[in-house]
Design brief:
This protein is mainly β. About 15% of the residues lie in helices and about 40% in strands. It has a domain of about 110 residues. Strands 5-1-2-3-4-6 form a six-stranded mixed beta sheet.
Length: about 230
């Protein structure tokens, strides 16, 4: 085997290892972080403490002393209290029954042909029963805390936020992602909001590593599961 072939095999192995360690794909709003706009250049002082010409400009960060530190601009951070609980159940049942009975007996035939039927008895009965039941239930709970970043301020003042928390455990990593639209009026004085008050919320909990790979069905098994009819 030539050196060129060995290098090719080694490069292929490194690519496969890198592919196994990639971050799981995300469906939350992108980007998951944003930096604030740089502040404008400092203008010559006009002798006053408050510089009115900066107000309304991108990157203007002046906040009076009586205002709180709630998120309101791109790049600000906001704490999301995740408290998602869902429960759904469905139950149905149906029953149908049908029964029938017929009897016939020949006791006498006077002056009519077919006397061979005299004394014969004929009885028939049928029954049909159907019963069906269905029951389905689902319960989910997700609690936690994640801090996200304001990535866009919408025209009506609502904040589009997105963020990710990555936790490395041994040879695997866990990813908690969240994004959604927050009404600034619902933000508490502690600069936090509940996930149940976030519109268009997208919440993910994913992982990678050998533990996650062990729980994933192989591509060949998925192929046969999709196309086999039994």
């Amino acid at each position: 085997m030539t050196k060129s072939s060995l290098r090719t095999i080694a490069a292929t192995g490194l690519l496969l290892l890198a592919a196994c360690a990639t971050t799981p794909p995300a469906s939350v709003h992108q980007p998951m972080s944003a930096r604030p706009t740089p502040a404008p250049a400092v203008a010559p002082a006009n002798g006053a403490i408050y510089q009115a010409q900066y107000a309304g400009q991108p990157g203007y960060s002046h906040r009076p002393l009586f205002e709180d530190r709630r998120a309101r601009s791109v790049g600000d951070i906001l704490t999301i209290n995740i408290n998602e609980t869902t429960a759904a159940s469905k139950k149905s049942g149906s029953t149908a029954a049908r029964a029938g009975s017929n009897e016939m007996s020949v006791t006498g035939l006077a002056g009519l042909p077919g006397k061979g039927l005299l004394g014969s008895n004929l009885a028939a009965s049928s029954a049909s029963t159907f019963e069906g039941k269905g029951d389905s239930a689902s319960n989910n709970a997700f609690t936690g805390i994640i801090t996200v970043t304001v990535i866009e301020v919408l025209a009506n003042g609502n904040l589009l936020v997105s963020g990710e928390k990555q936790i490395g455990i041994n040879q695997g990593s866990e990813f908690v992602r969240f994004s959604g639209v927050v009404n600034p009026a619902l933000i508490s004085s502690a600069n936090a909001v509940s996930s149940t008050q976030v519109a268009d919320a997208r919440l993910e909990y994913r992982g990678n590593g050998y533990i996650d790979e062990a729980q994933t069905m192989g591509w060949l098994a998925r192929f046969f599961l999709t196309f086999l009819a039994f």
